[in-house]
Task: structure prediction
Amino acid sequence: MSTPPYEGPVDVLLQLVNSHQVDIFDVPLADMVDAFVAEVASWTEVDLQVLSEFLVVAAVLIELKSRRLLPGSGDIEPDEELVGWEERDLLLARLLECQAYAAAADGFALLIEQAARSVPRTAGLDPDLVVHAPDLLEGVTPDLVAAAFMRATADRPAPVVDLYHVTVDAVTVSDAVAELALRLPRSGPATFRQLTGHLTSRIEIIVRFLALLELCKQGRVSLDQGYAFGDLAVEWVADDSDVVSVGIGPTDEYEG
Amino acid sequence: MPLSPEARAVEAVLVVAVEPVPPGLLAELLEVPAERIDPIVDELIESCRDGERGFEVVRIAGGLRIQTHPDLAPYVERFANVGVSSRLSAAALETLAIVAYKQPVSRAQVAALRGVNVDGVVRLLEHRGYITPVGRAAGPGQAVLYATTDAFLERLGLDRLEQLPPVEDLLPGPEALTELEEQMRPVSDA
Amino acid sequence: MPLSPEARAVEAVLVVAVEPVPPGLLAELLEVPAERIDPIVDELIESCRDGERGFEVVRIAGGLRIQTHPDLAPYVERFANVGVSSRLSAAALETLAIVAYKQPVSRAQVAALRGVNVDGVVRLLEHRGYITPVGRAAGPGQAVLYATTDAFLERLGLDRLEQLPPVEDLLPGPEALTELEEQMRPVSDA
Result:
């Protein structure tokens, strides 16, 4: 029996989910930490990256778990409850997708193994074959050769400001705030469903919700929910004159 | 049975080729209409099927090539110091799978799925020529988007990307989904 | 008529061989006595005689090799001209650049840098007279070392190699190589 190598916190979660009927929110955190610590003990060098990733996942699990364990779950704001559901849905989708790609990776390994049993012919042209080919170096200058060398040997890209972590289609709360601040004073009272009916992605709806909270905090809208899980009534309460100067403070950007 | 003159010509070209030769180029060389190439190639493939010869002719990465018959791998391996292709780690394979199915895809998207930083792995895969940048995403950040290459197809022994099993087939079945959902449901009295 | 298993094995080895293969080496690979090789080779030569295939197996320079059948030379030549195109591919140019700046250098060293097998490209460059073997490395294997030729300098309009533009040596340091190696480590349960 060999334990699979540690491939990141998502894999740990997957392994836990796959191995038993483990309630993901009832994951024995102590076991998980033990497994991880055992893994760390076998390292010759400490990998801070892996350590911090593990902390992130552990923190999410602890938060979810404590929310469930704490008495008086009725005190939890319904909207927080909603956010919790979103987290679960996203996590579920991600776990499933990861499972699919792990299966695909196994398939790739098999294909590669099969393909490796055949070796292509790369001998090229018969050496004594007279080929009247045009000069391959036509148009190649010494500078091009130097550039090709740089290209071939530049494994590490020059240090540049790396923006890859900026998500491709980020929707921002400030955008949503601005849009709502334009729409609400004109539309009069509306419900949350009306405000989000045209939105398709979950993250857009969440961002819209956070924007409303932001506006509520600033005293620009009133929010009212008649009963638990009822639709949210939204009303613009600020002076209309405020509209032109929607100077929203620092709002967060959410990755979609 | 001797090969037809056309199949012989194709075979000769494949003998000197160093990478898969696209059928269009073969049609050009033989001066025959493109649709005539497929039967010629089939004849050639057939002539070395069933272990009649030490090599086989295969359609790979959108072209044709000659390669050793798989059952002779022991001799070939002993003879040739085959390539520099060391094995890919599980992490690299999984990243490759995500790029293959989601292409074009950014590093951030792959990282979000795998839950770990994938910069090193992406760099390795790019260095090996299995993936390549194909453009930039619209929107802020303009993340570099990656796609798989012909070298990827060659390494997997595939002719076209469409030969990969559909990702739906790889998803766990409905019962597994239900099970997962069960596990993730909060206690009922919450 | 299918080939014998021994003839198939010899054919497979010749398919991947870049240089003529001495019969002694074939006997070693097949683990048969040296005198058994000649009839096996005869069988293989016979199987592609008389224009049955697009190639032939010949005894040359004390060894055996596969080469295109002479009567198909027009196709092969046309392929060499069209297929290789009139310019070097980016990959071929990079290989040439590495040889130019790192000479004398072995194929394995170039391959390690580029991360792919470069045998075909090196042969192409050698065949066109841009690079040439200049000796052998000390140590095990005694790899052939390549350097650029006068023809290469001439085509670039240079008198001496030193006239190539200076480049900053961007080769990854040992620590980066170790990192790469790490990522290429096979999975533990192999």
Observations:
- Chain A has three domains: 10-76, 80-116, 170-255.
- Chain A touches chain B through 66 residues (CB under 8 Å).
- The longest helix of chain A spans residues 78-115.
- Residues 12 and 32 of chain A are 8 Å apart (CA to CA).
